[in-house]
User: Fold these one by one.
Assistant:
Number 1:
Amino acid sequence: MMVETSKSRWRVPDEEILDAVEAAVADGQTDLLAGGVPPVEVSERVGIAESTAEDRLHDLSDTPDLVAVWGAKPSPPYRPRRSYLPAETAETIAKTTQFNRIDKTL
């Protein structure tokens, strides 16, 4: 996946973050209810703090490559949380199930 960004202030490139999301989806490490990959999964895969993963994923969801969605934690307590999907995956899920995309205009 190719992402065009200006000189990044981050030590982990955007492409590595996006690749981690894609790999987690392929491995089935996604939230329930058509959710995506939670920041904690990305932080573990690329070796960054969870708060950094949250910031990076939030920023990348403003690009055409990543979509922020609502999912549910897959273990008790099953609470809703923000998670992320590659745009192509989100489009496929949207065709087959109710989609819980986060509306950033609110």
Number 2:
Amino acid sequence: MTTLWTFIPEDTSALIAGTHNVVGFPDESFIRISKDIPVTETRRTTDNRITRVKKTSNMYTIEMSLFSVSPTNEILTKLWQVDELTKNVDDAYVSISIAKKYRDWETDRKSVV
């Protein structure tokens, strides 16, 4: 897996299924987004040249550390339990939106100076 992005939870807003704001991150933790399939790979052609092939895939892994007592951990556990019970591949997808929070950099800069 190739890590594409790493976010600091304090600077990030994460939303599960468009309704639940992710909460309960331990201090100094990260949100990591990785590509499950390499973005590119090299191949040797019949005339012995090396080419780069781009792979298109929408498969990603989102990794985040949460406290075990976090409400988000409880929701993710319930989603996993439903998935285990139904075994329905078509319903196994859950949307997770991750965005940087707006920060007033001018205010941050003044508070540091």
